[in-house]
Amino acid sequence: MLEALLNLLFPPQCPACNNYVEHNGYWCDSCLSRLLKVQKLPLESDLGGVFDKGVWCLGEYDGILKKLIADVKYNKKKSAIKAVQYFTKKGMEKLEMEDTELITAVPLYESKMKARGFNQGVLLFSPAVSARKMDFSEVLKRVRDTIPQFNLKYEERQKNVRGAFALQEDYVHRIKGKNILLTDDIFTTGATFFECGKELKKAGAASILGVVIASGRK
Ligand SMILES: [Zn+2]
Prior knowledge:
This protein is an alpha/beta fold. The chain contains nine helices and seven strands.
């Protein structure tokens, strides 16, 4: 009721071109087909060894998508959350992942989690994951602090995150033989993603598929 009234007063608009759309968070078809670029990322061999089903990316970390993700992380902007959730759901529909048994995300530090109140990976993938009648499992945890990655080179990033993750006690014996999907919002060098994937492989995962919303890699 309230939504219907709000939609009447403020008709929902596509986040990329401002054309009117049916519901809040929806993108118009032409922007969606232009910006949704589901592709398997080229990976270094160590990464490829861990992600045997590849790391798939839904769009380019640029323009409106980059802006929306920043609005989610730093401003908790509701319209941005809905827009990226819709984008992610549409992108995930293009992926084959029928044999996925467990879905998890790169964990945040506890301090960051408290400050932000949510893990953006989990938040942004949630509608896509529930559309597949699945839930997120909190498989991994951070076991030591790392410094922010953005000013570091790849080797420094690798060093920075090495050994920073471990399995949650509940999952130590529940990974063996499972097909796992690991998600994150942005993929830059992949150092953090790789560390998480390595832990899952060490615990005996049968296969790992990575999905990220956006990446600057081509
Ligand atoms: Zn549009």
